[in-house]
Write a structure and sequence with these properties.
By secondary structure, the protein is an alpha+beta fold. The protein has seven helices and ten strands. About 15% of the residues have low confidence.
Length: 265
């Protein structure tokens, strides 16, 4: 890996990944289980879906663990259930220059909005693309980076907190569409813009976003889907390292959304 172009690619990819999945790919508990809870509880292009259903009773940590994805639920990639607590980025370590954009900063860092009664976190890594025959050294390197990584956080809320979290995210997506700056565990990141895209069906509310992040001169796309089913909100941000290096678009891993909705239904 000696060429200047390849080294630049590695640097850009690392910068893009850092904003979401290097500094924030961990769990949310002290025991490394990827689960945490107080256990006190027993959008689309149009932002939210019509006829949304009111949230019900908050789920406990045990309930969320049953609803969270396991390896057998996904068709490809590697799903991690026991995420090291040392890698967790607590909400308190995430700040935004504009308070209105804080919900997006939490989303980008793999955290959640508001104060849920219980949370469970998983991570997923897709399968790398195979380089074409006769590919150059740099093309081979980019092929190795051409995979998606995602954080899946299930958060259950009491007293209408799930609906409020969705409202806050929709408001932030609108107010911060022209971009925002945020800091995750001391690392500053600039989001060039926020684009609301078509969200999946099947949830009580849904929102899909693409946040284009400045990464060493490249506009690196990072995508997220947020779903509400009853009192539970699923935060699912994803990034592709090759897209972080080149700025090209990538396909969001919709199989995670489909699988998670099926388990919450």
């Amino acid at each position: 890996m000696r060429s200047t172009a390849v080294r630049r690619t590695a640097l850009a990819a690392s910068a893009a990944a850092l904003a979401l999945l290097v500094t924030a790919c961990g769990g949310s508990s002290d025991d490394g289980s990827g689960d945490s809870a107080s256990d006190k509880a027993g959008g689309s292009s149009e932002s939210t879906q019509a006829g949304k259903t009111a949230a019900g009773k908050a789920l406990t940590s045990a309930d969320l663990t049953k609803a969270a994805l396991v390896q057998a639920d996904v068709k490809s990639g590697t799903l991690t259930e026991k995420v090291p607590a040392k890698d967790d980025i607590a909400q308190a370590k995430v700040t935004s220059e504009d308070a209105a954009c804080a919900p997006l900063a939490y989303l980008q860092s793999g955290s959640y909005v508001g104060k849920p009664a219980a949370t469970v976190k998983r991570t997923w890594k897709g399968d790398a693309a195979k380089p074409a025959a006769g590919a150059s050294e740099e093309e081979q390197f980019l092929a190795a980076l051409d995979l998606e990584q995602a954080i899946i956080t299930l958060a259950s809320y009491a007293d209408g907190g799930a609906e409020q979290a969705m409202k806050d995210l929709n408001t932030a997506a609108e107010k911060c569409a022209a971009g925002f700056s945020y800091t995750v565990a001391g690392t500053a990141t600039k989001a060039a813009n926020v684009v609301t895209t078509a969200a999946p069906e099947g949830a009580d509310e849904a929102l899909a976003l693409t946040v284009n992040v400045d990464a060493d001169g490249v506009k690196a796309p990072m995508k997220a889907v947020i779903l509400r089913k009853g009192a539970t909100v699923v935060y699912l941000p994803a990034a592709n390292f090759a897209a972080g290096a080149t700025g090209k678009d990538f396909d969001f891993p919709t199989e995670l959304v489909d699988a998670q909705l099926a388990k919450l239904s």
